[in-house]
# Entry
Amino acid sequence: MIKTLHQKVSLILIAIAAGYLYLSYNLKEYPYVPVDSDLVPKVLGYVLLVLAVALFFDKSSETEEEKEKRVVPKKEILVMAAVGGMIFVYIFLFEILGFLITTFVFILACSAFLGYRKWMTSLIVSIVFPGALYYVFNYLLQIRLPQGILPF
Amino acid sequence: MGGLDGLLQGFQVAFSIEGLLFVFIGVFIGTFIGMMPGLGPISAIAIMIPITYGMEPSTALVMMAGVYYGAVFGGSTSSILLNAPGISGTVATAFDGYPMAQRGEAGKALAIAAVSSFVGGTVSVVLLMLFAPALAQVAVTFGPPEYFALMFMGLTAISSLSEGSTIKALISATLGFMVVTIGIDGQTGTPRFTFNNPNLLEGIDFLVIALGLFALAEVCFLIINRKDTSLTDKANVGSTKLSKEDLKEMRGPMSRQSFLGFLLGVLPGAGATIASFIGYITEKKIAKKPEEFGKGSVRGLSGPETANNAATSGAFVPLLSLGIPGSGTTAVMLGAFLVMGIQPGPLLVQDHPDIFWGIIASMYIGNIILLVLNLPLIPYISKLLKIPRPLLISLVIIFSLIGVYSVSFNVFHLYVLLFFGVVGYLMRLTSFPAAPFILAFILGGMMEQSLRQALTASNGDYSVFVTEPISLTLLIISLLTFVVPMIKRRYSTV
# Structure
């Protein structure tokens, strides 16, 4: 019977360990060294396997505090997933549209989504912050952030 | 070059106008980030690393020292004002700090914390200055087997000493080690776990892990608490002046806990959390009026704060003299050093005394700036917390993404960052500690290298780890660190 959170996590970890071990055993051999590149991964795979099994049978239940920490309202999970989605879109468009445009839109959209409705302030921040960052990185630090479709 | 010359040279860098400016900026930003509930020194350092690109290493160093001290103090500030410790190292600070703030003496509590931190930090830097070079001298003779055993001990110590379940901590460490095996193997050139993806050949940068597991994961908690306005109400902290009686009360705990905290900090894995709790408990035990503890006692606040800061500097001893971090925070600090082109280790004192003493000097300066400039500014910094949460969340996210992009110039690693942000959040939900993960990630590469170097030298003979006395001792200690608590627990439950 899989009841507790520990046991669910443990099964996921066992799967990871198994996959990792499978890949470790299929690593290419390199015959000229006494210890090949598969030694450490194999050891790690078995260690994780043993630990995951130990977690499965670990009787110490969660403390109340830990349980409380885990209770997150469904609505908040959706909010976090949406922010994650926005980050995903941001990354996707980052090199296509360039740093300035994507960051401008991200700050506006993300703050508004999280409940900030003072448009003037958020407009100023979303222009000044990426602008300053872009200037510092590209011209002072010589680290090129993607220019995208803008000419500068 | 003698130690004193080096130290003077270090001070010269730190005391230049530029140096002071950057320490100040570092302390200021560090305090600000550290005050955010959830964001701790690890996030603060990781977020600031990209800013140091292109800086002189000496300037970057003093700024980072500022960020570090600032973030630790910022954590104490949110413990005192909100009873919301950002990091476990400042939990004990809230025991007496929060009641004091509730009495309307928030300013006094902050001043006690700042003075205690200053004393703890400074005493411990002096001890660091004495111990680290001596330890480095011993460590010069260490070969691969000793190094392997030492790092192994660091990993088991942090796993068995971190709060919560030892099994979970060990799992976290194992996973961190696994992630670092991704990429081309340095010795044989075999690509490992890359799934034929060319983006993974170079492996995963430590900044991806640090920003994902810490900064991004912590953003999730900012998102959940975004409507929490308790911080904005606390902008008025009252007077930060301390009376003579207060200072007299603090003298005892400060002098005791500076040394005790330092010693606990040097031990791998123990660190600030344990030092602050032990500091609180010992002060309560020897106090004449233990009943005052928990109700806003000066001693109860001063003890853990001194110990906490003494331990954070103590943790630099193994980092600087052996090149081996003993905690999550020093692991990220090591990453920051490597970005600046500094390789801490036994040879650092000999080969680059200027850098070694520069680090020490920057720690002194960071402490002083914290007390002299930062404390009076606390009311203003806490006003900064009025920045609307939604805006702040967006900015932290952007900072994390840019940080990773500026090391890899590859969008693929941004997706990996997002992935580790999710992993970090899930780990927090299920109470898996993240510190062993990042420590194993940093130590893993070095451990594998020294393991294989040792075995290559011995022609594949594993006995090399047990025939060398130092490595044998270290391995036995590391086994004991988690076998003993396990046995104890078994017998105490039966």
Q: What stands out?
A: Residues 3-493 of chain B form one domain.
